[in-house]
Structures are given as structure tokens and as C-alpha cells.
TrEMBL record:
Residues 301-324, 379-392 have a biased composition (Low complexity). It comes from Thlaspi arvense (Field penny-cress). One of its GO terms (molecular function) is microtubule binding. Residues 325-341 have a biased composition (Polar residues). This is TORTIFOLIA1/SINE1-2 N-terminal domain-containing protein. Residues 15-288 form the TORTIFOLIA1/SINE1-2 N-terminal domain.
Amino acid sequence: MPSVQIRSSPATVTDLKQRVIACLNRLSDRDTLALAAAELDSIALNLTPETFSLFINCLQSTDSSAKSPVRKHCVSLLSVLSRSHGDILAPHLSKMVSTVLRRLRDPDSSVRAACAAASVDMTTSITGSPFSILAGPMIETLIHDCDPNAQIGAAVCLAAAVDAADEPDVEQLQKALPKIGKLLKSEGFKAKPELLGAIGSIIGAINGRNSDKAVLDWLLPNVSEFLSSNDWHARKAAAETMARVAMAEQELAPLYKKACVDILESRRFDKVKLVRETMNRTLSLWKQPESDSTESSKLASSGLSATESSSFSKSASSATSKRSNNTLKGKDTNSSATLSSKLKDVEEKDSKEAVETKEKQNRAKRVLFPAKQKPSKVNDNGSNQSQVVVQSSDEDSSEGSSSCQRKNAEELSLIRSQITQIEKQQNSLLDLFQRFMESSQNGMQSLEKRVRGLETSLSVISTDLLVSRTITQNGNHKRNSCLQN
């Protein structure tokens, strides 16, 4: 799309409003959706500070009756504005935040995801305004709004904004953490997994600065209760929150190490793979010594600890799965499989013993006969005795190897005979099963024939009864008529 240069004259302002409204209306049509979205993005990129307020007002004018693409793109345009204009939008940040808050009740999850993306873009691009302008309304919505969609959206947006902020307002987050934590016990608050994610983000942003032990005294027990929740999203979010505590609270975390390790050990074998990996990663963080906690927090902030811990959890889960598979296989193998494995072991043992006997023979030859020397024909007693010793050692080794080979051969023959017997038994069982099936089929066919014969006999009997009744009725009628005459 060509760039649009917008001026601040009254005619241009009215034209801008009409164009924006026309493009928003075209977003609801699938055929014109792409063109309208591209034109709105071009308008947002080329706005002047005098037209920011008008453009945001147009985005706010769309209500919940509009179609989902319209609602989603209105929020996405806030991201485009933030990335393209930056700190110039600082005076309009509160209005942009209110536009996002109006979309948090949207039932479409893609619209709420666009709200989270817009929160991140506003946090990272508009740095001239304090973080409290964005975080304050989201915290209030999270605490006071009773709509489930609004609770989910507010928790996700707050977590995304806190994670994206370079310098979040620590005092504001510390004051809000007890209020947000109380929602874990509230039955009216339904978005518990998203709330746990927001709590974990706040703990990571505080990062142990002026931490209060009283907060962790009630926070960790409440969070650990969700490790046994029926919702696997809640279990995963609770484990991630406990991992944030282990990385951020370097001074206070050792006080809760034993309790947290015990409960994570009891829940580490979760049936869901993602939860199981998160549990193992969190458990490894809590088991680390105190000296390594600073290094783990640095790695987590740079993104390295996540990959390393995920590899650790994958190796742990693979090891446990291998152990479980081995035990199951050990229980389920039949006699033929055990015999074949025994056969392999005997063959390996035979080959090893053969190699050892060869090595012993070579050693004896090296000791008794030096290298590159041929034995001379002498008739003295010493040479004859050496030859006798060599022959006797060779005979002993050959006899030992032959006896081992005989034993192995006997074992192999026994195993093979057992395998053949098992195969014969299996074949006989298959034959018996086939005969049983054939006899059952023959019995069913004979029963069907008998039932059909009974049906035909019953039909014949019924017809005979009907004929006899008609004959008797006709005879009685004729007799009565004759008597009357």
C-alpha cells in the first residue's frame, strides 16, 4: 500500500475518520478483509501526533456486536501504533490501555491474545510513561471483575506486561501481590491457571527486593495446593510459580526448601508430559545448593536455564519411562523370549571363553619361546623338559576349552529342544482352537436348522387347526339348517 500523508486540517481529520470507519466496516467481509487491514496498518504508520486521539477513538467506537476480525484488528492496531511511534504516544497511553481493557471480556481467545500482545508492545515501546499507568488498571480489573473472560484476559495481560517491562514498579507490585494472592482462595475467581502465571511473573519482577517472609508463608502453601488440582494447566502453572520463587527469593527460599522438595517429589510423576517436565525442572531448581542459586537465576533470565532444565527433565522422564518399560517387558515376556535371550547369553559366553583360551595359549607361547627364534633340535634334558611343559599346557588348555564347548553345546541343544517343544505346544493349541471354532459353527448351524424345522412344523400345525375349525363350523352350520327345515 502507498504511504498516506495525513495533515491536521479539519477536512483531513473528517476524511481520516470516514476512511478509518469505512475500513473497519470492510474488515467484517472476508473478501475485503486483507485490503482493509493493510490500509488501516498504513494509516496507523503515517499518523501525526494531532490525529492519534481521533484514531484511538475510532478503535474504541467498535462494540461487541462487531465480528471477531474487526475486534481483533482494532487491538492489533494498538500494537502497530506502539511499535511505529513509541514515546510520542505517552500522553495517549491511558486511553490505549482502556481500549485494551474493553476487549478483555471478549469470548474469542484470539482477541484476548491480541490484547496480551498489545500490552507487551505498549510496555516495551512507550517507555516515557510510568509502568503503573498500564499495570494499575489491569490489577484493578483482575481483582474486581467477575467475568471469567475478563479474569483470564487481565491475568494474561498483566503477566505479559510484567515480564516485558525493563523497570517495573516494584512497590506497586508488592502492594498488589497480597490482594492478587487472595484470589486463589476465592470461589468466584475462575481463571486460576492464568492467575498463578501472573503471580509468578510478579515474584520474578520483585526478584527478592524487599521481600516479606509473611507473604511467602501464605503464598507457597496456597500455590502448592494446586499441584494436585484436576486441571493440568493449574498444576503446570503452580509448578512454574514455585520455580520463580526458587530463582527469585534467594534469601528466603532455603527456609521452605524441605517442604517444597517433599511435595514436588510426591507430584513429579504426573500423567501429563508437560506438567511432568515442569515438575522435574522445578524440583531441580529447589534441590540446588544455595551457592548455585544466583547462577541459576542469571541463566533463567537469559533463557539458558529453561533449555538446560528442559533437557534435564526430558532425560529424567526418559529414564523413568525406560525403567517402567523394562519392568513391563520383564512381566510380559513369554517363555520363548526368555529362552532366546538365554541362548544369546550362552553364545556370548562361549565366544568370550574361546577368546580367553586363545589369549592364554598365546601368553604361554610368548613366555616359553622368545620372539623370532626357532626351536633347535637338542637332546639335553632341559630342552626336552621345556617341550614337555609346553605340550602339557597346550593339552590342558585345549581340554578346558573343549569341555567348556561341550557344556555350551549341551545347553544350546537343551534350549533348542525346549523352544521346539514350546512351538509344538503353540501349534497344538492353535489346532484345538480351530477345531473348537469349527465345532461351534457346526453346532450353530444345526441349531438354526432345528429352529427352522420347528417354525415350519408350527406353521403346518396352525394351518391344520385353521382348516379343521373352518370344516367344523361349516358342518355345524349345515346341520342347523337341516334341522330348521
